[in-house]
């Protein structure tokens, strides 16, 4: 960690030097580079409470809902990822539900003061925790208070800061907080391919659309599909015949849901089994209606061969779900 921090300092000095040189050369060469003040007027007073001047109608909700959902999803994901990183670095445990509630309430309140929605920032947090050694919420409060003083009290001074300097700061944050080891060829070879695919889909979606929400959404959907595919192949069915070959005992292991139902159905020997079959689900769990339909389909296959089937070992939730839906879904796999 010390080597990483030292290197970040070296890189930061190089970037700052580059920014300063670029600013000086641009001034000498007559190049007009924008500064912070060119991007918009800075506030000179504290924000005032006010009611948004928009009609409170369903049409207004339809306009803002897609953007609000995208901002909420991306902001919540970044805040939870930041909290997880901080917990790992500080070896503490934070209440993620509390963080989410606090962020939601704060974003609602800030709207009445003309503010923009916000969330935890991974880059700023990592600089604060790793480089500055922050360990309590007081550091976050101090950072926000200092930023407020800069904007409101020292706004004229902030306005003349060249944008090249801010670019240098963002480059420093990116270099010092990015985990370069995670994209090293040796690391990628050891990582599961599904995780690499999720990373590439997220980056590609964000770059192609210039929309972080779309990139994150595509990555989440890819991760869900990869997880479902992986779990679907974890179902195991063991078959044992009793000594007189009059009964076949099946033991099912794994999670039963829409992605694993067909694999479960195909695991039984309907035509060759004896007249009695006992299926033990004590090491399995039924999660959805597709799994219940699979059980009905199994019973239906055995009935057509004149075989009596007994299902045992269902846990309470699985038994309740099977009892509520069994029979109604019998034709789902017919």
Show the helix and strand layout:
Blueprint lengths: L1 H27 L29 H33 L5 H16 L10 H10 L5 H16 L2 H5 L3 H15 L7 H6 L2 H17 L2 H21 L3 E6 L5 E10 L4 H5 L10 E11 L2 H16 L3 E5 L3 H10 L9
Parallel strand pairs: 2-3, 3-4
Antiparallel strand pairs: 1-2
What does this structure look like?
The structure is a single chain. It is built from 13 helices and 4 strands. The chain has 3 domains: 2-183, no CATH class; 184-230, no CATH class; 236-333, Transcription Regulator spoIIAA, CATH 3.30.750. The chain starts with a helix and ends in a 9-residue tail after the last helix. By secondary structure, the protein is an alpha/beta fold. Strands 1-2-3-4 form a 4-stranded mixed sheet. It is elongated, with a radius of gyration of 29 Å. Mean pLDDT is 79; it is low at 1-13 and 328-334. Strand 3 (276-286), helix 12 and strand 4 (308-312) form a beta-alpha-beta unit. It comes from Paraconexibacter antarcticus. Pfam families: STAS, Sulfate_transp. Keywords: Membrane, Transmembrane, Transmembrane helix. It is found in: Membrane. The chain crosses the membrane at residues 104-123, 143-176, 197-227.
């Amino acid at each position: 960690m010390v080597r990483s921090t030292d290197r970040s300092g070296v890189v930061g000095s190089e970037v700052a030097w580059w920014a300063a040189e670029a600013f000086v050369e641009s001034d000498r060469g007559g190049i007009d580079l924008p500064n912070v003040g060119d991007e918009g007027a800075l506030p000179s007073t504290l924000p005032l409470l006010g009611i948004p001047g928009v009609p409170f109608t369903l049409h207004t909700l339809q306009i803002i809902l897609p953007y609000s959902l995208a901002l909420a999803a991306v902001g919540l994901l970044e805040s939870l990822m930041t909290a997880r990183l901080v917990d790992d670095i500080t070896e503490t445990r934070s209440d993620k539900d509390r963080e989410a509630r606090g962020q939601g309430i704060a974003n609602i309140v800030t709207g009445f003061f003309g503010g923009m929605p916000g969330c935890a920032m991974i880059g700023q947090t990592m600089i604060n925790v790793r480089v500055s050694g922050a360990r309590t919420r007081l550091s976050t409060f101090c950072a926000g208070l200092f930023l407020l003083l800069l904007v409101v009290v020292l706004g004229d001074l902030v306005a003349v800061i060249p944008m090249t300097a801010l670019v240098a700061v963002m480059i420093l944050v990116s270099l010092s907080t990015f985990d370069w080891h995670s994209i090293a060829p040796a690391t990628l070879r050891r990582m599961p391919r599904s995780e690499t695919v999720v990373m590439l889909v997220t980056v590609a979606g964000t770059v192609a659309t210039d929309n972080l929400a779309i990139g994150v959404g595509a990555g989440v959907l890819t991760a869900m599909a990869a997880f479902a595919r992986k779990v679907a192949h974890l179902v195991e069915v063991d078959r044992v015949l009793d000594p007189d070959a009059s009964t076949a005992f099946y033991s099912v292991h794994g999670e039963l849901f829409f992605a694993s139902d067909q694999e479960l159905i195909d695991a039984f020997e309907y035509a060759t089994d004896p007249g009695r079959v006992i299926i033990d689900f004590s090491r399995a769990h039924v999660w959805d209606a597709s799994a219940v339909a699979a059980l009905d389909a199994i019973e239906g296959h055995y009935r057509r061969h004149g075989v009596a089937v007994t299902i045992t070992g269902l846990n309470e939730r699985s038994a309740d779900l099977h009892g509520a839906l069994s029979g109604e879904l019998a034709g789902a796999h017919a």
